[in-house]
Amino acid sequence: MKKILFAFLVTLVSTQTNAQKWISLFDGKTTNGWHSFGKASAGEAWIVEDGAIVFDPAAKTAGKYGGDLVTNESYNDFHLQLEWKISKNGNSGIIFFIQDDPTKYKETWHTGPEMQVLDNDGHPDGKIISHRAGNLYDLIVGKEGVVKPAEEWNKVDIIFKKDKLDLILNDVSMVSTHVGDDGWKDLIRRSKFSKGESPDFAKIFSGHIALQDHGNKVSYRNIRIQKL
Q1: Torsions phi, psi of 151, nearest 5?
Q2: Does pTM top 0.85 for this prediction?
Q3: Residue 4: band (very low, low, confident or very high) from pLDDT cuts 50, 70, 90
Q4: 78, 89, 92, 123: most buried, per Cβ within 10 A?
């Protein structure tokens, strides 16, 4: 009995410790902790609706600013977890390793690679195999048949530790790769990012995380992170 009780207590403490490692990046009510890239605060086109951060294209059309929504904090090794829901024909993305210096870089994607968020069936990018949902955008193709249809929630895990990067969609491994080595550099050379517009793309392996304003309605919720 004592051994069983001890094992239970060890498991309980371990569970509590693991739970304490998670840091919420969204309080469910405000955009606190985020700002639009190049701005001091979040653009008004990013709203909170039904417990999710939502990019509202109608607000942007009405003249309110959006822009990619960037974490105030920068991260090294991390485990990011969230859920996303894209509108019909919509496009967005989760961008990481961003260097938050608008005096040097005009866009988040000038430095940060992206896990694609997309309505594969409705958006033209769905016809490009390396641009489909869950892929490491324009770099590595993931598995097919994993993403849920538009207007349904998808779960994401992005895990980076040392030089290992894993992208997981709906509990299915989409991408598992090492960064910074010759293979990584070759991926970049063969991608759209080799054209000189973003010479520092994917060269620095720490930075901020962004939710992309691609002009379409997209929702993100249950956003949390562990520092590894």
Answers
A1: 75, 10
A2: yes
A3: very low
A4: 92
